[in-house]
Amino acid sequence: TVSDVPRTDYPGIVDYFTNFLKLEPQGKIESGNVIVGTNWAQDAGIYEFTMGVNGAKVKGRYTFVYVFEDGEWKISQHHSSVMPEGTKPQAITESEVKDLFQLWNKALATEDPDAVAKRYASKAVLLPTVSDVPRTDYPGIVDYFTNFLKLEPQGKIESGNVIVGTNWAQDAGIYEFTMGVNGAKVKGRYTF
Prior knowledge:
By secondary structure, this protein is of the alpha+beta class. Helices cover 22% and strands 42% of the residues.
């Protein structure tokens, strides 16, 4: 429910529950549908967990497929996903969206590629200003900034347009970088 990594072997399953159980979850099925076959059964529906450590609630869809193995019923497949409509909206203003650029720009000033890469979401796509290679994973983003930060860039938004939705925001426009190593300027389009 609270991880986007499929667990297809015993060590992976143990790893997930080692972390999940730290939250002290208690589950309750809200609605379900059971189908029974020969030596298999399926239970699918909606459940909600209350986390004992902080009282937070997480509602999700679930599917359990059970098989009769070694004289007992065991889970053969378990799917669980947080319900997107159960995600609470996180409000953000246009001004706060614009401030996110400043956080990113400050990360550039650290000259630490890891600090900049940590500003990106887990499934981010970076189409860099001074490279024609798309970066679609954390190591690729770090690699780009390892080289780009050697130029000591500092950015300034010249014009932008902000759109705010439920749990997402977009800032797109034109920015310009001044390179601290030589004073060169690079102007480009951006979309965050």
